[in-house]
Write a structure and sequence with these properties.
By secondary structure, the chain is mainly alpha-helical. 79% of the residues lie in helices and 0% in strands.
């Protein structure tokens, strides 16, 4: 209904001659043709979004509801630019990757491709870990061997990917599977929020206020935490800094999971598979709205609301003892390092904040909703989480197949596509080893920094291409100032997020994170300068 309402507004804005029946017919026809954006939604509605949205609700409550829609709107603006570039070329050899090489430089193009493959291989393993957790925890199969679960999942997803690679009817079937999985995710979490609102656990006015951007909240604790901090009679600097630091990490994570760098690489190839041309450019914009923007906003917002209602600044909220002790131990180590001697009031205060700020898993959230959903709480969340994981695994493998085949100049070649798809599956099969303890941290830190750093580089490439005088189909874009304004807005937000994340790592106690922060800032600046200089040089030559 929301999608139809937005479609009506956009259509009437373009022409006043549409009747309601005509609008409904066009909406139905476009919905049937849509597909590429649903594949994008399948990768963004994964474990990263789940974790980011859940903890965003824990640490920020409803006050950060505006953040995820803003991050997705930013991404969709750039994806619309990418779709316009892709569908404006008469020669299929002029794929975006080749356009970047030709009109900007090979440095940005290969950085884009390499970062895409790295993100796919590393983070696909996290989706296997998420699916294993859902099967063992939410769906009650705790006695199943994690290696067996991951092996079965790898075989299942590779089979689905092989159907996708064959094209034809198989391609349509896999596309419908993805649509079903995304719809399952959205409906599962919407049901939870509807029940919470009906039970009075969520304030409707508070929800509406949460969608109003409050940028000052990026740099201070949420109001509920601030009230608790003001009530305490002992020093609160540690917990204030802890909350603000964690907010930054969660916000950056939420921004990065909305539209990741690997998603930007995928979109053009899904258009080629659908054989879309210039005539489908408006359909592509519709597809991004109905298949990506709306499902993401609905799902992510529902996750934030459900988490906020149960855990935000809640002294009695459910939390695992391990997560609680982990937060409390960090505070105790801080006291020892600074030779502080906590009194009874300080200890009680620390225990209260450690309980409220401990990270919650999907199992914790499902258990907290048992009074509302009864025996179905774990099942509803388990299905939604498993759907998230499977759909994201599948698309990670598809993206890697395209990236590897493109790297050798044979985009979509069946042999190289499957070989590329197998690489993330192998990392997923080893996720019980990879995603644990220090090994997990060692892999995630560099991958996260590189992916965060290079996302604005990909956005910069799209912006420059949209303003090139030598690329087919973009000559009118430079005359439409509002389009460039939107692109600059999205580009500025991506640079702010990347720089904020990297500067934040400079203040971490972990020396490796400091080094990665410095490396990321230098790499971001260097690639930006190289890209802009290369663009202007090629503009003058041609």
């Amino acid at each position: 209904m929301t999608a139809f309402f937005i479609f009506c507004i956009l259509s009437v804005f373009r022409s006043k001659q549409y009747t309601m029946s005509t609008l409904f017919k066009r909406f139905r026809e476009n919905s049937a043709k849509s597909g590429p954006a649903w594949i994008q939604a399948a990768v963004t509605l994964g474990g990263g979004t789940l974790v980011s949205a859940l903890y965003l609700g824990v640490i920020g409550g409803l006050s950060f509801l505006w953040l995820l829609p803003l991050s997705m709107i930013t991404g969709v603006i750039m994806l619309m630019a990418l779709s316009h570039l892709t569908l404006s070329q008469s020669n299929e050899e002029d794929r975006p990757f080749r356009l970047v090489i030709k009109h900007i430089g090979s440095g940005l193009a290969w950085s884009w491709l390499i970062a895409t493959m790295l993100a796919n291989i590393v983070f696909c393993a996290s989706q296997f870990a998420l699916a294993t957790d859902a099967i063992q925890g939410n769906l009650g199969r705790s006695n199943w061997n994690p290696f067996l679960i991951c092996f079965i999942l790898a075989c299942l997803v590779l089979y689905l990917v092989s159907l996708y690679a064959k094209g034809g009817k198989a391609y349509l079937r896999i596309q419908n599977v993805i649509k079903f999985l995304v719809a399952t995710i959205v409906i599962s979490f919407m049901v939870v929020v509807v029940i919470l609102i009906a039970q009075g656990d969520l304030n409707f006015i508070g929800i509406l206020e949460g969608f109003v951007p409050k940028f000052k909240m990026l740099f201070q604790p949420a109001n509920e935490f601030q009230l608790l901090l003001n009530e305490t009679s002992v020093a609160t600097d540690y917990w204030t800094n802890h909350i603000v630091s964690n907010q930054r990490n969660v916000i950056i994570g939420a921004f990065g999971t909305a539209v990741g760098i690997n998603m930007t690489f995928l979109l053009p190839y899904t258009y080629y598979r659908k054989k879309w041309k210039k005539g489908e450019r408006s359909l592509a914009r519709f597809d991004l709205i109905i298949g990506l923007l709306i499902p993401f906003i609905l799902t992510a917002s529902c996750l934030v609301m459900a988490s906020a209602s149960q855990f935000h600044a809640n002294k009695d909220g459910r939390v695992s003892e391990t997560a609680y002790l982990e937060v409390l131990e960090k505070k105790q180590n801080y006291d020892k390092t600074n030779q502080l001697s906590p009194n009874a009031a300080t200890i009680k205060r620390d225990q209260m904040f450690a309980k409220m700020l401990a990270k919650r898993s999907s199992h914790d959230l499902a258990e907290s909703l048992r009074p509302l959903l009864g025996k179905w709480s774990q099942l509803i969340f388990g299905i939604g989480i498993l759907a998230m994981a499977i759909s994201t695994m599948m698309v990670h493998m598809i993206i890697n197949g395209y990236a590897l085949s493109e790297s050798i100049g044979k985009p979509g070649n069946h042999k190289w596509f499957i070989f590329g798809a197998v690489l993330p599956a192998l990392s997923g099969a080893l996720s019980p080893i990879i995603w644990q303890g220090s090994v997990k941290a060692a892999i995630v830190i560099p991958a996260s920094v590189i992916a965060t750093t290079l996302l604005p580089i990909a956005y910069l490439a799209f912006f420059l291409l949209m303003n090139s005088k030598n690329i087919e189909g973009v000559s009118d874009i430079r005359k439409r100032r509002w389009i460039n304004f939107a692109l600059i807005f999205a580009l500025a937000i991506s640079y702010f997020a990347a720089c904020w994340a990297l500067i934040g790592k400079l203040s971490e106690t972990n020396a490796y994170q400091n080094y990665f922060g410095i490396f990321g800032l230098v790499l971001l600046a260097a690639l930006s300068i190289i890209g802009i200089m290369g663009f202007y040089k090629k503009q003058k030559v041609t």
